[in-house]
Amino acid sequence: xxxxxxxxxxxxxxxxxxxxxxxxxxxxxxxxxxxxxxxxxxxxxxxxxxxxxxxxxxxxxxxxxxxxxxxxxxxxxxxxxxxxxxxxxxxxxxxxxxxxxxxxxxxxxxxxxxxxxxxxxxxxxxxxxxxxxxxxxxxxxxxxxxxxxxxxxxxxxxxxxxxxxxxxxxxxxxxxxxxxxxxxxxxxxxxxxxxxxxxxxxxxxxxxxxxxxxxxxxxxxxxxxxxxxxxxxxxxxxxxxxxxxxxxxxxxxxxxxxxxxxxxxxxxxxxxxxxxxxxxxxxxxxxxxxxxxxxxxx
Length: 298
Description:
Elements: H1 3-12, H2 16-27, E1 34-39, E2 45-50, H3 51-79, H4 85-114, H5 121-141, E3 154-158, H6 161-180, H7 186-206, E4 208-213, E5 216-221, E6 224-230, E7 234-241, E8 249-251, E9 256-260, E10 264-270, E11 273-278, H8 282-297
Parallel strand pairs: 9-11
Antiparallel strand pairs: 1-2, 3-4, 4-5, 5-6, 7-10, 8-9, 10-11
Helix pairs in contact: 1-3, 2-3, 2-4, 3-4, 4-5, 5-7, 6-7
């Protein structure tokens, strides 16, 4: 996809706003003065808004999501001369989430018109599945070509028991909700979410693993190769502090990637972009990179 096509596709997301307004306009005279807009776990309404407030709320939530997605898309374009597969994966996920928001808004309208229960199954089941699929595709597009088999010079790992515990708690809450919420589709969807957070907890506990060889640097987790960086593509590196506002985990769009669960990183400059390695010992990581570069020239 060209940059122009990506820009057009990003702009088309904003059609969600007039489509939401049009759906309300089509049903305006038939909608009750006080609309049911919030529902308990059993599907029964437990919150109401006036028609006008409900419309503004639906538009506000949609606009909020659109602003975030548009900013991310702008960052992608700013950092890339061409639109890569990763950017397309992210754009696709944006459309799935926007479709879910529109679907729920339309379901609320239908409930107030006909009493038809808000169809939550596609959202509770479809969104976690979509996130899982897009995550797999996103990670796969970042791997690069595997390095040739060579002796290991050094290995490091970088994780966070504190974050692992946090994700484990979230997974337990999701699993408990799967059994407690009687909505159709909720058990399967939340069980999927629970499994996803359990996987993240396992990854966070074991951490990112860095393998240094004369051929280059390999980044992996849970036995899955995330990224291979040939040593000849590395032009420089230096330790830095990582700001919490930049987030943790696998971060970055375009030509910038970060693999970090703490506040210390080694910033690697490559011929193809920037890579940030989270580390528990920046001095050791720099030393291992030095050893990798020296071995390639010996």
